[in-house]
């Protein structure tokens, strides 16, 4: 692991994004990685071939991406956006599989559970949402708000 070694050196460069890159996540096989940028695109880069494999974007979404994470299988790339929506991208086809809506403000972070059964999103609306897969389509199952925590 690079983080466990002393004297780590950079070995590759991957151009492609046209604005700030806000998030990076390794693909489950550790041979590729996904990125999210203020240019409103996610990208998939392969470290073996040193090239970009795919771009995930659409003409209707023009805001930046704050965070990205892969499903445990690598079949989906979750991306949180400044417009309060989380896009679920199919990494093979490059198409949008689903949009997760429910936050009232910018979705600033997300992560997939270690077992791959849940996705958690955090927003500027001060709410965490936990999404679970039901018939392969995530849906909100738990919402934690500051008011709820204060009354526990």
Would you mind describing this structure in some detail?
There is one protein chain. This protein has one helix spanning 146-150; strands at residues 21-26, 32-37, 42-46, 51-56, 65-70, 76-81, 86-90, 96-100, 107-112, 118-123, 128-134, 137-144. The radius of gyration is 16 Å and the shape is globular. The mean pLDDT is 85. Helices cover 3% and strands 47% of the residues. The longest helix is centred in the C-terminal third of the chain and has 5 residues, at 146-150. It has 152 residues and is mainly beta. The strands form three sheets. The protein has a four-stranded antiparallel β-sheet with strand order 1-2-3-4, with no helix packed on it.
Present the secondary structure layout.
Elements lengths: L20 E6 L5 E6 L4 E5 L4 E6 L8 E6 L5 E6 L4 E5 L5 E5 L6 E6 L5 E6 L4 E7 L2 E8 L1 H5 L2
Antiparallel strand pairs: 1-2, 2-3, 3-4, 5-6, 6-7, 7-8, 9-10, 10-11, 11-12
Which features does this protein show?
152 residues, four-stranded antiparallel beta sheet
Strand order of the largest sheet: 1-2-3-4
The average pLDDT is: 85
Structural class by SSE content: mainly beta
Q: Can you tell me the residue ranges where pLDDT is under 50 for at least 5 consecutive residues?
A: none
Considering DSSP H and I runs of 4 or more, what fraction of the residues is helical? Answer: under 10%
What's the story with the biggest beta sheet? Answer: 4 strands, antiparallel
Q: Note the beta-strand portion.
A: over 45%
Give me the strand/helix succession.
EEEEEEEEEEEEH
Indicate the multimeric state: single chain
Q: Indicate the overall shape.
A: globular
């Amino acid at each position: 692991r690079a983080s466990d070694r002393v004297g780590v050196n950079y070995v590759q460069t991957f151009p492609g994004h046209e604005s700030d890159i806000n998030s990076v996540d390794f693909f489950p096989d550790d041979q590729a990685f996904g990125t999210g940028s203020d240019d409103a695109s996610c990208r998939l880069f392969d470290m073996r071939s040193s090239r970009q494999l795919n771009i995930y974007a659409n003409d209707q979404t023009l805001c930046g991406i704050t965070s990205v994470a892969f499903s445990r299988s690598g079949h989906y790339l979750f991306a949180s956006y400044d417009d309060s929506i989380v896009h679920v991208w199919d990494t093979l086809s490059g198409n949008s599989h689903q949009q997760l809506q429910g936050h009232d403000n910018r979705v600033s972070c997300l992560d997939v559970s270690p077992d791959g059964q849940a996705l958690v999103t955090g927003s500027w609306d001060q709410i965490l949402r936990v999404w679970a897969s039901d018939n392969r389509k995530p849906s909100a199952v738990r919402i934690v708000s500051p008011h709820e925590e204060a009354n526990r």
